[in-house]
Design brief:
- The protein has 169 residues and is of the alpha/beta class.
- The chain has a single domain (6-168), classed as Rossmann fold, CATH 3.40.50.2020.
- It contains three helices and nine strands, in the order E-H-E-H-E-E-E-H-E-E-E-E.
- The chain has helices at 11-28, 43-58, 104-112; strands at residues 6-9, 34-40, 62-70, 79-81, 92-100, 120-128, 140-144, 153-156, 165-168.
- The strands form two sheets. The protein has a six-stranded mixed β-sheet with strand order 4-3-2-5-6-7, sandwiched between helices.
- Helix 1 crosses helix 2 (43-58).
- Keywords: Glycosyltransferase, Transferase.
- This is Pyrimidine operon attenuation protein / uracil phosphoribosyltransferase.
- InterPro entries: PRTase-like (IPR029057), PRTase_dom (IPR000836), PyrR_bifunctional (IPR050137).
- Residues 8-136 form the Phosphoribosyltransferase domain.
Length: 169
């Protein structure tokens, strides 16, 4: 039995959502000297890269890309990071992922920064599914979807100008 795919966002719509989120981040952080954009691998990091590129063009502040790799199957926080978490002290951090489903991934992402005093921590997702098991909210979301639990959201973000899409399966 083949899975039925429903297109939720096409490439142009994804870009519009990311552009809008970048402007919202700019408005929220206009008085900052630097913000840190922490992308959760793999697709959250791709969105973070795109946000950074836009912010580098429009924002007066500097932005720095951080990468977080999480073991999403673990029942405890297991993360690999490409930065010294103490460098985040007293800075604005934007945590980025592709889909907010149960909230577990964002909760683990928060855990990376738990021992460091941040100026602020904001969250970005391209799709918020509204099925949270953890008390997670997003500060910036491309689209919010009310789905049934058995449905899945598939985000395809291909680099090198290939076709991007978000499907409900």
């Amino acid at each position: 039995m083949s899975a039925k795919k429903l297109l939720i966002l096409n490439q142009q719509q994804i870009q519009q959502k990311i552009d809008r989120i970048a402007y919202q981040i700019l408005e929220d952080n206009f008085d900052e000297e630097e913000i840190l954009i922490a992308g959760i691998l793999p697709r959250g990091n791709r969105i973070a890269e795109r946000l950074k590129k836009i912010l580098d063009e429009i924002a007066p502040f500097k932005s720095r890309l951080l990468t977080i790799e999480l073991d999403k199957q673990s029942s405890t926080l297991k993360a690999k990071i490409d930065f010294d978490v103490n460098d985040c002290r007293d800075k604005a951090v934007i945590l980025v992922d592709d889909v907010l489903n149960s909230g577990k991934t964002l909760a683990y992402g928060f855990g990376v920064f738990i021992d460091v005093r941040l100026k602020k921590l904001r969250t970005v997702v391209l799709v918020d599914r509204n099925h949270k098991n953890f008390p997670m909210t997003t500060d910036y979301a491309g689209v919010a979807l009310s789905t049934v639990l058995k449905e899945r959201v598939d985000v395809s973000l291909i680099e090198n100008d290939a076709e991007d899409a978000v499907y409900l399966i």
